[in-house]
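Homework-ish question, so no full write-ups if that breaks the rules, but can someone show me the predicted structure for this set?
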Amino acid sequence: MFKTISPRRRALLLLTALALAAPAGAAQAARPLQAVASFSILGDMVREVGGPDVQVSVLVGPDGDAHEYEPTPGDVKTLAAAQALFVNGLAFEAWLPGLVKSSGFKGRTVVASQGVAPRRFEAGEDHGHDGHDHGHDHDQAHSHGDLDPHAWQNLANGVIYVRNIAEGLAAADPAHAEAYRRRAEAYAARLQALDASLRKTFAAIPAERRKVVTSHDAFGYFGEAYGVSFLPVAGISTDAEPSAGDVARLIEQVRREHVPAVFVENISSPRLVQQIARETGAKVGGTLYSDALSKPGRPAATYLEMFEWNASQLAAAMQP
Amino acid sequence: MSLYEWAVSPFADYGFMRRALAGTCALALGGAPLGVFLVLRRMSLMGDAMSHAILPGVAAGFLAAGLSLGAMMLGGVVTGLAVALLAALVARMTPLREDASFAAFYLISLGLGVLLVSLRGSNMDLLHVLFGTVLGLDDAALLLVTGTASLTLLVLAALYRLLAAECLDPGFLRACGGRGAWVHMGFLVLVVVNLVAGFQVLGTLMVVGMMMLPAAAARFWAVSAARQAPLAAAIGVAASVAGLLASYHYNVPASPAIILAAGACYVCSIAAGPQGGLLRARRGAPARFRRGE
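A: Not a homework solution, just the prediction itself:
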């Protein structure tokens, strides 16, 4: 991604250069900590905790796919200049070790998911229910038994992320340690408040209605935390034109499991999803954000907004 | 698996299969007879050209009103008719033949369409429109296609004699009164309306195949247009059933499956058709298509 340097940033760079020329102590005070986060959701958390004391760059930006990312020369430069790198871990960023090596990054690497109880992808989460082999590959295929890296889809894990980030920042920049910890606790309190309210929301929905069919494979942690079953779509997952057999299997699945709502994206036409809904009586859910934030101005521009949006979409669709 | 389970229960069990069948059959009943006349007039490629010509109208409708059936239909019909009328006018008023003037106008239209599509930035949504969703037909799309087919059959029945005469000898009707031009225009209107309605079912590219392949196949089985037209419609219906069943049982996309089924009918007709088919020709029947005889 190419960014032009704004006049403000140019001034900042100039100041940085001047500061570097000045004695070391003064430089430390004038220049915010340079931090890099591997993807947009983590970047938002680091920004919340770092506040004005940290300048955060994100490698895989909003709407980007962090599963399969091709680092750019700009990323190498960004990382080479950074003092701290924040990654999700759980084998999420497979492309990152190569980038770290080629950039010569010497700073502190913080694994945000450290201390999270990891879950594994369950059998059946990567293929259909009825045992047929449809020959369709999921866009982001995970095989049975692999670690599920999407731990941030549980707000309780989000709190762990935030505390890890605060400790990482404090270690990289001890001068502001107190401020990082203070901001982290305030942010964690907001996450916990949302967590409590969502648990109440989902608990109020009858258990047999708390299931949806979805093409996403990223909501395992969400499902565990709030008691929602996410059934994988049988057949359809690519954005190529689906076959009649695929559509029939999906309809069969929704009927058999009495699923109240279908969240299927990457399907070739909104009319097709509406047809499935008509035929099964299930509701059609809206967009869910799983691996990346939306661009600013869209409904999931921050971690908190993303979580609220997903939860409200799901709850509305499952409501009797 | 019994034949009933294989061939009937997919349609009995699933509404979307019945809707797809109804839509494609309507398209075959209306479009294939039109294709017969296009073949007779040696305008077989006109359908293809026209499907490109309606692009700017569909794109304009989409840009103005989103994924709205009415807006895209209106836009497509307006641009399609404009291209057809301009081409016909130029052909009748200047020495330039109709195919050449048609090619000129449809290319202009296509250029405009590509320009409009790229204005939007992303053309993904529009590509979906162009490739159609035969499995996702809603009531409005179904009514549109069946209504168009009914209208087409009525108009074709009313115009049949004039149209056949016009096809065989454009000079004849012009000589005995100016009605030939009107018949020709009416025919072009039907083609455009069918193409624009059909993009709801199979997509613009597929609807052309449904129009031309059964018609070209029927040409090998019957001589007169009166026999070719119902035969073409029947071939179209058979291809729809076969294509949808293939899509259901073998997990292939529906629209290409239907078109390939129609294509298979055509290839078989080339080989085995009694009117100029290759096998008959070799056995000594009148081989009117062989060169130099």
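Now go work out the reasoning yourself. Hint: The interface with chain B takes residues 134-135, 235, 240-248, 251, 268-276, 278-279 of chain A (CB under 8 Å).
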